[in-house]
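Why show two proteins at once? Because comparison is the fastest way to build intuition. When a single record is shown, students tend to memorize it. When two are placed side by side, the eye starts asking what differs. So, the first record is below.
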Amino acid sequence: MTTPAADITATAPVRAVTVDLDDTLYPQSAYLAAAWGQVADAGASLGLPEAQLLAALEEIAAAGSDKGTIIDRALLAVGVAPDRLRLFVPALVDAFAAFAPTSLACYPGVVDALRLVRSRVPLALITDGSPRGQHAKIEALGLVGAFDAVVVSDELGGRHLRKPHPAPFRAALARLGAGAAGTVHIGDRPAKDVAGTGRLGMRCIRVLTGEYAEWPAGDGYAAWLTVADFVSAVAAIEPLLPRREREDAAFLQR
């Protein structure tokens, strides 16, 4: 269910925009499917059953990709004894971390929508994860140079600074020279994107794409708007963006 934006023009102008990456701009499942394949290949080189390991990795990840110990649990599922996990886990974790996709595809319309936003206001990407992996995704998506700033939370000091920690949001605001009240964040996760921005007084648009599309809104902070996807989010805030001489009329008519 989406939140209507009938009265959006009565709210404060948007002076900057920040966006999430995984499951907001592209389907993360495409990246994970290929990454788990590389992990299974690495497992096969260590004598593990490749097909069974791949199936276990995909099944466990599908239950929640950020719950942790996916590789450990997959190894247990294919019969590796608990006291032998240490013989396999480091190499398989390295295989996952080293995965660099050659090509990924954004959701339809995302590239044009990003261009429209950036033609009007400063635009930053805020993403969690291994810096090497996140930058590889950006390159594979063809989005290098698409933002005025890119904030990978782990680069700020480690995993403990991942969203909803305020550090990555504050870093993006600082790099854009923007204030929280005038900035809108677009992301898919209630517990990270919505909660993290709510604590700083930023407006957040939740998109219902990817792994967390069916998750409840959660407690604490409510999204400013909830819409189907990133293109819909940009269309919703377009009336609040400063006018420029050149506008993408084709995008607005979609």
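Second record. Ask yourself what differs from the first in the token line.
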Amino acid sequence: MPETPAAGAPIVTRVLAIRHGETDWNVATRIQGLTDIPLNERGRQQAARLAQALADESLCAVYTSDLQRARDTAAALAQACGAPLLQDTGLRERHFGHFEGATFEEIAQRWPEDALRWRQRDPDFGPTGGEALQAFFDRSVAAAHRLAAAHAGETIALVAHGGVLDCLYRAATRLELQAPRTWQVGNATVNRLLWTPEGFTLVGWNDTTHLDALDDLDDVSA
């Protein structure tokens, strides 16, 4: 049930913002964008650990990007929590146009001028056929606002992509788009936000506790 706020208190939605599990293109540093790449084996393990860790969160809904790497991560979480799984295209990754499928190094070699504008976080720049940074920020943050507003007093999860989570971090901390990223956006990490009609605030970021056992297994098998 939604919480009843004290008189005069803002109505708060608790938001768990989660990046999808690992893919082979993450490992190869290839830009995915809207290319529909599946989770790899480690990504599926991360999704399972995430679902186990959040099974008692009392989520009223799990919203996901319709891209399968996010959708499959979200499906594990929704099943563990007994929450409905709902797709929203507003949570899609940024469309990277002709960058998609290329590594960071390949982008720098093939399109040096585009690569410079991308690294400088030019808000008006979008790769050919892709989405400008400002438009992507506006789209993804508006989607998160809309979904959080629909669940005032409740707790929801938003399962999306690294770019979307970067935008939400900036929205919550009031950082400009061109500020360099100094925070991590790890695969299948837990990031906690609060929403009120005034916007988002940051509670906790890049919690990896539930993934530590996977790292321990890697150390043993290395």
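One difference worth noting in the second protein: Residues 133-149 form the longest helix (17 residues).
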